[in-house]
Amino acid sequence: MLVVKKFGGSSVANKERIFNVARRCIDDYKKGNKVVVVLSAMGDTTDDLIALANDINPDAPKREMDMLLSIGEQQSVALMAMAMAKLGVPAISLNAFQVAMHTTSQYSNARFKRVDKDRILHELDAGKIVIVTGFQGVNKYDDITTLGRGGSDTTAVAIAATLNADRCEIFTDVDGVYTADPRIVKNARKLPEISYDEMLELASLGAQVLHNRSVEMAKKYGVTLVVRSSLNESEGTLVREVNTVEKMLVSGVACDKHAARIALIGVKNEPGVAFKVFDLLAKAGINVDMILQSVGRDDKKDISFTVDETEAKDAMKVLKENKDRLTITDFQDEENVAKLSIVGAGMQTNPGVAARMFGALYDAGVNIRMISTSEIRITVLIDLADVDRAMNAVHAEFMEEIEN
Amino acid sequence: MLVVKKFGGSSVANKERIFNVARRCIDDYKKGNKVVVVLSAMGDTTDDLIALANDINPDAPKREMDMLLSIGEQQSVALMAMAMAKLGVPAISLNAFQVAMHTTSQYSNARFKRVDKDRILHELDAGKIVIVTGFQGVNKYDDITTLGRGGSDTTAVAIAATLNADRCEIFTDVDGVYTADPRIVKNARKLPEISYDEMLELASLGAQVLHNRSVEMAKKYGVTLVVRSSLNESEGTLVREVNTVEKMLVSGVACDKHAARIALIGVKNEPGVAFKVFDLLAKAGINVDMILQSVGRDDKKDISFTVDETEAKDAMKVLKENKDRLTITDFQDEENVAKLSIVGAGMQTNPGVAARMFGALYDAGVNIRMISTSEIRITVLIDLADVDRAMNAVHAEFMEEIEN
């Protein structure tokens, strides 16, 4: 069996944890499996590097940020190879150049285009455990790119897809996918399995178990994912095409506290303005999430949208530079908001789910600022201060009744 | 003019120093020069990484050590590019892969085979300052190699040679090449210029101003070197083909405190034994320096030699594993020794220099353990405890008389 195992930064934060990961991988290897390990940077390394860069140039070129940040994973993989050697098992570390993890050109937010399999297969065939740097790639200029936060999951899935691996295990500090964040909702339960689509909605909505692109890619290439704990041996949650006859109405409640809301006030009420706004943002590489446009009154309308809070500054900059062309009178930039979502494949065939969710929030005294839906998801934007109360109310409404 | 400027780890140890280096490079750039900067890892980064590795595996595979250590320079160059961007000058950092700095395969002690110039020239032509990682290369397996301590000098010279640069400036914490280490010999003087051969002897003998391979390469390709201070604007010392009519008898006194002496006792007195010993060491990649073989008595002889203290452990290991085959009765491994050398192109045509040196040491009560000479150098192995006294005595004998 060929297994790809991905461990996050906290799993390799110090010597003891590095050896712990090494032993887990070696256990698999000694069962006769071929093992590829994908690692993130140790502990706070990435944050420390960002702080170092910000101290020198808060507006550092993104190309150079990626050049800098990529060293974190290279450190992890080299140390892991040393730990495995110490334990008597042949291992080799490879960075993005050495594997040849080809990505798009966009620094700090690149996407995989193609992963070469020759070098990894060559090393696996030589009987080695192969340890690959997560989070990074190389673009057509031979420059180092990074995939953005959580990108190591995507690296693991991209490698699993390329090698046609039997499974791709994502180790985290939780032991699987829960119906809600157990730190916020005490009745949250672990799911034995979940479909790609549900996981995708949960991931893209802030359930920080898996990076959303990794789930997209797993779905596209049919990679079986396993989310499990790096701290214990429990089975975790399988993410794959689920074919249970009766799908759960709601499989999870997620929140994303890192949303920012930007409101454009007094935009001229004429065709094409919204296009211009979002085209500009897209060209600047900013992902817009929820969008709300007021019904135009007189010749003016308001447009609100959410972005990840890390992109809010860039978005505001782009918009302000084009204020006149976009006919914007005023801006509002608000970061004390959060997205709350429910996700469930059964939602498609069960009307009234949205109404029940809004009712639960109303009963809990939570004000809804924006609403967005997909076939298997309903998301509301609420005040950051209301998150815990809202999560528990919604979880109680959908998840706790199902259990009985 | 095309200038390559190399700055060591202490010159980029913190934010202030990074900006200091950035400004110096920008001064050159603004005069219309094309500037390539080669950097070492910041401050103690390399030592910290070695400590991290040793904690995990004191016998770490050298390939993985190089993978680990190379991140130090990548950090420096990325931060330097950010600093230059902050100062409004376009700059780009490049690592060994990106430049394509091809080396031999030997990890931790690789040598350059070929440096590609396309990427660097492309970026220079685009009006950028190009910042390259020192100390590292890539071998034919696409693995990262390092050149050993001080290798960043060699990187700078290799790039200067490849680009046919007008000069290659090596910035250090001293402001030039001195007749002796001023910390040990208070009468030491700065030399305005010195020949490649003299510098080479000084460099390979522990005058830590320049890495010996860098001088070899500079000589081979006729690269004009300038050794100067990163802390002030003083002129420094030119290293080039010197054609002064009367060459100095002795241009410098150097000491190397990092020597180790290994003695092989009771080796069988038959042909081929010495060959076997040094062939084995060569195959293990260990550089042997001074060699002394006793005149054989009966059927036994002793062989002593010196190696860098960092290679003493490896050398002893190789020899012990082959003890029987090499017919060695016993070993001695001694690290409290130092090499003291005098270097001067004028020595070739002036007999009696060695006798004067030995006389000065005798007068100072310094015991000579081994002797080795070249056309322009005389080296003696002495006890580590005698170094300062010996340096001053020899410097007084040769250098202080010349001045008057």
Please state the oligomeric state of the protein chains shown: homodimer
Largest sheet of chain A: 8 strands, mixed
Q: What's the Cα radius of gyration of chain A?
A: 22 Å
Strand content of chain A: 25-35%
- Count of DSSP H/I helices of chain A: 12
Strand order of the largest sheet of chain A: 3-6-2-1-9-13-14-12
The helix content of chain A is 25-40%
Report the span from N to C terminus of chain A. 39 Å
Mean pLDDT of chain A: 89
Query: Largest chain-chain contact?
Result: A-B, 38 and 38 residues
- Give the CA-based shape of chain A: globular
Q: Provide the low-confidence segments of chain A as ranges.
A: none
Helix-strand category of chain A: alpha/beta
| Overall strand count of chain A | 20
